[in-house]
Amino acid sequence: MRIGLAIAMLLCPLASVIPAAAQSKVNIEQSFADSLTALPKEELAVSGGFYVPAYSSVAMSQGKLRVDFSVTLSVHNASETQPLVVKRIAYFDTAGKQVESYLKAPVALKPLATVSIFIPTDDVRGGTGANFLVDWAAASEIAEPAVEALMVGGVANAHYAFISQGRPTRTVGKK
């Protein structure tokens, strides 16, 4: 039994070196049907976007150890009265290459509803500089959505969890 445990402990670090297979497509329309409503018939007069840093892997111990994290991206409609149209949820790796796109077409979230994307711990395609882009719109003035990523992972007996808040994407420069 001790030999089996020792072999398992030796092989465990190798699991983090093997690339993860592509995650099966998340179907937001099916998974979050209770959170969705019909798209507004009115023109979408208000729009915005978020950049959300995510960390599917983090270097530790002076860069000698890599710790992998699961990532949950959540998009919350902060409006009590209006639907929020989510136009794009895209996941990118450290090099800026798109890894996944999670919407085939825009979806509308009910007031105060949420949709989430889950990236399992063994899916390390995003790397240390992974990120999401989330584009949204609404028919009229609306409370800005809350968009954030929760990372959870651990090594040995130590467990870590942290949140990365989305940053609105705005053009900056000289006026």
Overall spatial form: globular
How many beta strands in the DSSP annotation? 12
Radius of gyration: 19 Å
- Rounded to the nearest angstrom, the distance between the terminal CA atoms is 70 Å
Helical region count?
2
- Low-pLDDT runs of 5+ residues are 1-24
Q: Which structural class fits the helix and strand makeup?
A: mainly beta
- Biggest β-sheet description: 7 strands, antiparallel
SSE run: HHEEEEEEEEEEEE
Q: Provide the β-strand percentage band.
A: 35-45%
Q: Summarize model confidence as the mean pLDDT.
A: 86
Proportion of residues in helical segments = 10-25%
List the helices and strands and how they pair.
Blueprint (H helix, E strand, L loop, with lengths): L1 H14 L12 H4 L4 E2 L8 E8 L3 E4 L4 E12 L7 E9 L5 E4 L5 E3 L4 E6 L11 E8 L7 E10 L2 E8 L1 E2 L7
Antiparallel strand pairs: 1-7, 2-9, 2-12, 3-4, 4-8, 4-10, 5-6, 5-7, 5-9, 10-11
